[in-house]
Design brief:
Layout (H helix, E strand, L loop, with lengths): L2 E5 L2 E4 L4 E8 L4 E10 L6 E6 L5 E3 L7 E6 L4 E6 L8 E10 L7 E4 L3 E6 L1
Parallel strand pairs: 2-11
Antiparallel strand pairs: 1-3, 3-8, 4-5, 4-9, 5-6, 7-8, 9-10, 9-11
């Protein structure tokens, strides 16, 4: 059973920091891109940050300069360090990974269960 398990969400004041972690576990042959998305109430899910297997990164304009994504391939884990948090960063944050698992013919998208990040003003 392949799963992504997130941790690190919570309540923080504006200007504060949080670090989210997401570990992929189970029978995994290879991991391609990993990333973080978020969804605020009444809004569509949006990309926050993405990191490829080679380490290239991509960020939403709204978080550039404040968030930093990284990954530990040995631990199948992706992180996002979130600094200078703003109330508009409040959302449920979802981990995403593109995985190659046994008995499949290509990459499959997997999602974490989501973790709440709330930034108070």
């Amino acid at each position: 059973q392949v799963q992504l398990v997130e941790s690190g969400g919570g309540l923080v004041q504006a200007g504060g920091s949080l670090r989210l972690s997401c570990a992929a576990s189970g029978s995994i042959l290879s991991i391609n891109a990993m990333g973080w998305y978020r969804q605020a109430p009444g809004k569509r899910r949006e990309l926050v940050a993405l990191i490829t297997s080679g380490g290239s990164t991509n960020y939403a304009d709204s978080v550039k300069g404040r968030f930093s994504i990284s990954r530990d391939n040995a631990k199948n884990t992706v992180y996002v360090q979130m600094n200078s948090l703003k109330p508009e960063d409040t959302a449920v944050y979802y981990c995403h990974a593109s995985l190659w698992v046994p008995r499949t013919t290509g990459w499959t998208d997997y999602w974490g269960q989501g973790t709440q990040v709330t930034v108070s003003s």
